[in-house]
Design brief:
This protein has 5 helices and no strands. The chain is mostly helical. The protein has one domain. Helix 2 (30-53) runs antiparallel to helix 5 (122-144). The longest helix has 27 residues, at 59-85. The protein is globular, with a radius of gyration of 16 Å. The two termini are 23 Å apart.
Amino acid sequence: MKKWLFLIVLTCLAGEVFANPIIVYDPTRVIPYAIVVGSCLLVEACIAAFILFFFDLSPKPVAAVLFIGNLVIYFVLFRPLYERVDSFFVSEAMIVVLDGILIKIICSNAAFQENTFKRLRWPAAFMVAAIGNVVSYYVGVAIGW
């Protein structure tokens, strides 16, 4: 029961923040902002790691690296890019490209590969990135409402 109460409180806090693109102007909304962004990026990393599991990649380390990589991409590239371009779709397209490149780099590293690793082509990497990005967007929309 305590777990559900904790999740309900977190969801209610996150309900104050609008979904993508999430920009916080009010410092009192830092906690809801962190909840929404963290949830979106975690879901995106887990979905991508689950899909990449079928290419015989280790899901736990891949999810961890994707989560950290997505945090860096979001804060270093997406937010400044969105503020300059002011087009959500152009910004999201650039993020999908960067996520695809990150996925391809992870897949080429032998530390993440299992014994029966199947080669991941560029279109598949971009497709995995797009799927993860779309799911994370709708998670943000669902939590933000």
